[in-house]
Amino acid sequence: MESILELYDVCKVFNGFALQNVSFSLKKGYIMGFIGPNGAGKSTTIRCIMDLVHIDSGNIKLFGVDYHKNLKALKQRVGFVYDQDVFFEDLSVEKNKKIISLFYNTWDDDIFYRYANEFNIPLTKPVKHLSKGTKMKFALAIALSHHAELIIMDEPTTGLDPVFRKELLDILKDIIKDKDKAIFFSTHITTDLEQIADFITFILDGKILFCKQTEELLKQYVIITGPLNLKEVVQASQPISFKETSLGFEAFFETSRATEIISKYNLSFKKPSLEEIMYYLVKSNNNK
């Protein structure tokens, strides 16, 4: 299946921070979650993809084409939903739409008004009077109304209440039914990604730790708990992370390394959430 977004060894030194050999790819028909702690490089990577900052080395391809070749035409095929106000705040939704539509050759008013109705976006209200959730829906309606094939979203659910977040995730599930589209979704709210992401790419300190199928990733690790009298035995099995708790210990393992010790000592275990996986991997890397 054709890749819609590809990064190869992308490097960028930016405001005292460096992206280092960032590589991953996203194929049509899939949603990729892009995770990492604050300051890990998520937004910088997205700015590089959108050519808002120029990379120092490496290569980026959009729709199989080097992104610096006819970037203007390539951007026509990308919908960008950004976690900042990018509209004319004093103008109405309708007037904003009229201005923005001029920049897209494939703008489709019928699609815009369909989404505006579906999302309950008030066309006559000034943008500055919209809630954060409605602004996000407006941005998504804009992204979808020029037949974008790649939707790039930078922290779209930050600050949204649970109802708005659930609505947005349902919208994304509906979008991706079109197998010619793909969604690249950067967020630190990992519970959202567990519901919709096919792949997870994890960036830390400007480096990609992994890019894996979500289902595979959630099976890869296990959290073991037990009494402190087994502390040394468990630590000898080299967990990725280990901490003492008020009830004993909690150890984070690769599942393949933990199976024998769980069985031998009849230890309690659970499969970690995506948030717990990120927490323990960040903690482990910080302790190196």
TrEMBL record:
Domain of life where this protein originates: Bacteria
A GO term for molecular function: ATP hydrolysis activity
Keyword terms: ATP-binding, Nucleotide-binding, Transport
Domain ABC transporter positions: 5-230
Pfam families assigned: ABC_tran
Name of this chain's protein: ABC-type multidrug transport system, ATPase component
Annotated organism of origin: Anoxybacillus suryakundensis
